[in-house]
Amino acid sequence: xxxxxxxxxxxxxxxxxxxxxxxxxxxxxxxxxxxxxxxxxxxxxxxxxxxxxxxxxxxxxxxxxxxxxxxxxxxxxxxxxxxxxxxxxxxxxxxxxxxxxxxxxxxxxxxxxxxxxxxxxxxxxxxxxxxxxxxxxxxxxxxxxxxxxxxxxxxxxxxxxxxxxxxxxxxxxxxxxxxxxxxxxxxxxxxxxxxxxxxxxxxxxxxxxxxxxxxxxxxxxxxxxxxxxxxxxxxxxxxxxxxxxxxxxxxxxxxxxxxxxxxxxxxxxxxxxxxx
Length: 276
Ligand code: ZN
What we know:
This protein is an alpha+beta fold. It has 5 helices and 20 strands.
């Protein structure tokens, strides 16, 4: 697999899910071995798990007093498309646009504008399973032949346990929107979350059914959790050559997995391993 960036400067803008503020993103092409960087108010922050400062309802990066919120849907689109070198300039509000709540608008913007370099990607490998746990949730990275990311969980009122998979095909996850349960809406708002939420960006569930929009997949909320896992994994800085199985994981546990992986994984550059 070869490293990639974008072929030209791209722009996208919109309201942040939690802050409700408006921001513009300018995506700048970068050369090989640069990595993915955010720039906000003159500060550069690498898209790396060591820079994660908050995982409550979204993944936020921070450094030197600068906070960049809700990075995971753009990062998931970048990982799915194999883009590993980019500068993301954020202007205005400090939260990335939520758009339609999924990764689709980022994916659509990027997919026709990819430029590959004649340099192999950094790949991460493990020799034995690595597991992180928190309460009833767990995430396990497992050596396997063809990397697959999966998420198993339940949706209240709809099904008890179901597993969804990302095997490298964007449609398996890219349209899945952010969601919440109707009964938690007031609580979230009172805690300062979801100020920019609307029927266009958040699927609201009650008794196992969406109350404000139609489901794009029968198990759309689980697929969104899987999209979040991919986006958080993009903060590892290397491509997975192993499988990742999440059982009711969340942003916090995703980042814990990356911390554990960083202790045990080996890194090598190769141009022939296929990954999701
Ligand atoms: Zn999300």
